[in-house]
Write a structure and sequence with these properties.
By secondary structure, the protein is an alpha/beta fold. Helices cover about 20% and strands about 20% of the residues. A hairpin with a 2-residue loop joins strand 18 and strand 19. The radius of gyration is 27 Å and the shape is globular. About 10% of the residues have low confidence.
C-alpha cells in the first residue's frame, strides 16, 4: 500500500516522559445545540451530566501489560488455512476502511460488536485503523476510498463522529483503544504532491485543498478528547521517508496536521511505521555504517543514499525529529511486523563476502524485494515478529496492523462497490514506474481486491515466517535438540535414496529436520524419514541429518550414512508428469512461475523437480518451493504445505533471479521425465 519517493548514525533517544493528563476537547454536539436554543430564548440552562463511569487510567505505553483483542473475523479465516491455527490467536488491527464498516455486515462485525467481543474476551486493548479520508491514497489506486477529494464535511459527520460516539460509550471506558490514523495520507503530501518522479495530480489536489491535514487534525482532536483513546499517526516507512531530504519535512508535515482543525500535539500518543508494508524490522547483516572497498553502502542501488536500512532505526530516528518539532518527549513508536519476516530458503545467514557495494548489499539484506518501493502482495514475504510490547528503546510495540492474508490489491481489474481501483503495482507483469525505479512489481498473481482474503498469500506468509511459526520470536530458548540417531538407508532406486532416523528430543519441541546430501541441505521435513529423488543412477551419496526447534536452535549433525542408487533402467517415462513455465523478464533479471502436473496414476510423494537453467543463473527469491542452483542444474523441492502431488493433481511455485533467463530444456520430477509445454 505504501509508495516511496525515490530520490548513520543512530540518533540518541529522549527518555520517555511521564504520562500526560487526558485531554477533554471533544465538543459536546447535542448539548451545544440545546445551549444555543436556550440562549436564543433568553433562559438559563443547567446541564445535568450523567454519572461518570470509571475510566482506565491513562498510561505512557498502552501496550505495556495489556491483553490485546483478537479479531474473531480474521482469526477464523487464518485458522481455516493449513497450519494457520498456529497464529490465529495473534492480535490484529480492525480496519474501518469505509463508513459501512462502522455498522458491519453479515461477514464482518461492526465497531460496537468488536468492542463488545473484546469485553467478552477479557481484553483491555483494542486496535483500530481509521482509514477513509477524502481522496484517500492519492498515489495509488488499489486502496482508493469512497469519499471524493472535497468531501471533508462528510468525513467528519458521517465517519469520524459516529466512531467517536461509539468509543465514548461508558461501557468501553476500561478499554485502552489504539487508533491508527489514516495510513499513507500525510507521507503522500511530503513526497508525491509535486516535483518528484512519484508525484501524481491526485496528490497535488489533496495538498492544495488541505483536506488530508484537516481530516487528520479533526480525527486527532475528536478521538483524542476521549480519555482512553491513544492516537498513533501513520508515518510510512524508511524506504519512503528515510532520505535526508524527507525526514525533517515529514516531521514538519505531521506537526502541521496535528495542529489543524482544533488538534494539538497532545492528541498524539505516537506514530506507526511500516503499515501494510514489507520493510524489515531490523537488518541483522546490513548496517548503514557498513562500507565495501571504501564505498559506503548508502551508494548501493538498493539503499540509494537512504540514511536507514530498516524500520527500527528509522522509527527511532524519526522519533527524535518529531520531538524536536514539539511532540511530547514521551511519544512511542509502533512497527507493523505482520509481513516483513522474509524467512525461507532465500534468507541470508551471514553478511555477504562480495567485494562490490551492490552485490554486498543484495547478498546481505533479508528484505528480498526487487525494490524497496514495491508494496503490493510481495512474492516471497513471510510473517514477521509476533506482536510484543516494549521490544526496543522508544518502541511501544511490534504490532500486526495489516492482518496477514488480506490482499493489498487485485492483480487485474475487478469490479467492486468499495471504490477500490486496479493498480498496476499489483500486476506481476508490470515493469514499474518512477516510485519503484521502473522495476518489476514483485506482486503475486491472482490476487483479489484490497482487503479481501488471499489464501495463497497467507500460506506463503506462513511458510516464510521469520521467526518461524511456533518460535517465541526472541530470546528464551537457546538449547538445541538432541542429535538425530539411527540414521539409515531404507531403500534405493535408480533415481532415489530413502532414509529414516530416530526422533530427537528437545526442552520445548522439535519442529523439523534438515537433511544434507554431500554437505548441502536438500530439504527440511517434520517427519523422521525422507526419500531423496532426482538422483543419478549407480552413484554414491553421503547423508546427515540435523534437528531444529521452534526457536531456531539446530543440533549437531548425525553420523553420516552412504546410499548408492541402483543401475538405470525401467520406471517413469515421458507423460508421468507435465511441466509449464511462464516468465517475466527484465534487464538482468526474471520471475518464473511454474506448474507441475502429475499425469500418472500414483501420487508423487515428497516431490522434487530438477531442471536446466543457463549458466550464471542466481535465484534470489522463491515461494511455495525451496529452489537452488548448481552450475546449470536447478532443483525445486516441496515445502510443508504441498509435499505431495496427487494423481491428476498439480502444484505451482515460483522464483525470481538474476542472469539470463531461458525456459528449461529438460525437467524431471522424482526422477521421472516431464513433458514440457
Amino acid at each position: 500500500m505504501s509508495v516511496p519517493a525515490s530520490h548513520t548514525e543512530e540518533h540518541p533517544l529522549n527518555v520517555r516522559g511521564p504520562a500526560r493528563p487526558p485531554t477533554s476537547r471533544r465538543r459536546p454536539r447535542a448539548l451545544g445545540a440545546l445551549a444555543a436554543l436556550a440562549l436564543a430564548a433568553g433562559t438559563a440552562l443547567v446541564a445535568v451530566q450523567p454519572a461518570a463511569a470509571a475510566t482506565a487510567a491513562r498510561v505512557d505505553n498502552p501496550y505495556a501489560g495489556a491483553t490485546t483483542y483478537v479479531n474473531p473475523d480474521w482469526s477464523a479465516l487464518a485458522a481455516a488455512e493449513p497450519g494457520g491455527d498456529a497464529v490465529a490467536d495473534e492480535p490484529t488491527f480492525v480496519w474501518l476502511d469505509q463508513i459501512a464498516a462502522i455498522e458491519g455486515d453479515s461477514e464482518k462485525r461492526g465497531l460496537r460488536a468488536h468492542l463488545d467481543t473484546a469485553l467478552d474476551q477479557g481484553a483491555n486493548l483494542v486496535q483500530l485503523v481509521v482509514y477513509d479520508l477524502p481522496g484517500r491514497d492519492c498515489a495509488a489506486l488499489a486502496s482508493n476510498g469512497e469519499l471524493g477529494p472535497t468531501e471533508i464535511g462528510r468525513y467528519e459527520s458521517d465517519y469520524i463522529d459516529p466512531i467517536a460516539d461509539i468509543l465514548d460509550d461508558p461501557a468501553y471506558a476500561n478499554l485502552r483503544i489504539v487508533t491508527l490514523i489514516e495510513p499513507d495520507s500525510l507521507p503522500n503530501l511530503v513526497t508525491n504532491a509535486g516535483g518528484t518522479a512519484g508525484s501524481t495530480d491526485a496528490c497535488a489536489t489533496m495538498k492544495a485543498n488541505g483536506n488530508y491535514e484537516k481530516g487528520v487534525g479533526y480525527a486527532l482532536h475528536t478521538l483524542g478528547a476521549i480519555p482512553n483513546v491513544y492516537n498513533y499517526v501513520d508515518a510510512a516507512h524508511h524506504g519512503w521517508l528515510g532520505w535526508d531530504s524527507n525526514l525533517v519535512p515529514a516531521a514538519q508535515e505531521f506537526k502541521k496536521a496535528a495542529t489543524t482543525s482544533g488538534a494539538t500535539v497532545n492528541d498524539v500518543a505516537g506514530f506507526i511505521v511500516n503499515t501494510a508494508n514489507y520493510s524489515a524490522t531490523t537488518e541483522p547483516y546490513l548496517k548503514i555504517t557498513d562500507s565495501v572497498n571504501g564505498q559506503t553502502v548508502r551508494q548501493s542501488k538498493w539503499l540509494d543514499w537512504n540514511q536507514y536500512a530498516d524500520e527500527q532505526t528509522f522509527a527511532q530516528g524519526l522519533r527524535t525529529a518529531l520531538v524536536a518539532q514539539g511532540f511530547d518527549s514521551g511519544i512511542g513508536m509502533l512497527i507493523d511486523t505482520s509481513r516483513n519476516g522474509w524467512g525461507g530458503s532465500a534468507r541470508p545467514t551471514a553478511p555477504s563476502t562480495a567485494t562490490s557495494v551492490d552485490a554486498f548489499v543484495d547478498g546481505s539484506r533479508t528484505d528480498r524485494r526487487i525494490h524497496a518501493g514495491n508494496w503490493c502482495n510481495q512474492s516471497g514475504a513471510g510473517l514477521g515478529e509476533r506482536p510484543a510490547a516494549s521490544p526496543a528503546a522508544g518502541i511501544d510495540a511490534y504490532v500486526w496492523a495489516k492482518p496477514p492474508g488480506e490482499s493489498d490489491g487485485s492483480s487485474k481489474a475487478i469490479d467492486n462497490d468499495e471504490g477500490k481501483g486496479f493498480d498496476r503495482m499489483c500486476d506481476p507483469t508490470y515493469t514499474g514506474n518512477g516510485r519503484n525505479g521502473n522495476s518489476m512489481s514483485g506482486a503475486l498473481a491472482d490476487s483479489p481486491v484490497a482487503g479481501h482474503w488471499f489464501s495463497a498469500q497467507f500460506r506463503q506468509l506462513l511458510a516464510n515466517a521469520y521467526p518461524p511459526v511456533g518460535s517465541p520470536g526472541g530470546g528464551g530458548d537457546t538449547r538445541a535438540p538432541s542429535v538425530p540417531a539411527g540414521l539409515q538407508v531404507t531403500g534405493t532406486t535408480a533415481a532415489s535414496v530413502s532414509l529414516s532416523w530416530s526422533a530427537s528430543t528437545d526442552d520445548t519441541a522439535v519442529t523439523g529436520y534438515d537433511v544434507y546430501r554431500d554437505g548441502t541441505k536438500v530439504t527440511t521435513t517434520s517427519a523422521t524419514s525422507y526419500t531423496d529423488p532426482g538422483l543419478k543412477a549407480s552413484t554414491a551419496y553421503a547423508y546427515t541429518v540435523r534437528a531444529k526447534d521452534a526457536a531456531g536452535n539446530v543440533s549437531a549433525a548425525s553420523a553420516a550414512v552412504t546410499g548408492t542408487t541402483a543401475a538405470s533402467g525401467g520406471g517413469g517415462g515421458t507423460g508421468a508428469c507435465a511441466a509449464t513455465w511462464k516468465a517475466n523478464t527484465w534487464s538482468g533479471g526474471f520471475q518464473a512461475d511454474v506448474t507441475l502436473k502429475n499425469t500418472g496414476d500414483k501420487p508423487l510423494t515428497a516431490w522434487k523437480a530438477t531442471f536446466t537453467v543457463p549458466s550464471g543463473t542466481v535465484v534470489t527469491n522463491a515461494w511455495s518451493a525451496t529452489v537452488s542452483v548448481s552450475g546449470t542444474t536447478a532443483t525445486a523441492a516441496h515445502v510443508d504445505y504441498n509435499t505431495d502431488i496427487p494423481a491428476g493433481g498439480s502444484v505451482s511455485f515460483g522464483y525470481q533471479g538474476t542472469g539470463t533467463y531461458a525456459a528449461p530444456t529438460s525437467v524431471t520430477v522424482n526422477g521421472q521425465s516431464c513433458a514440457l509445454s
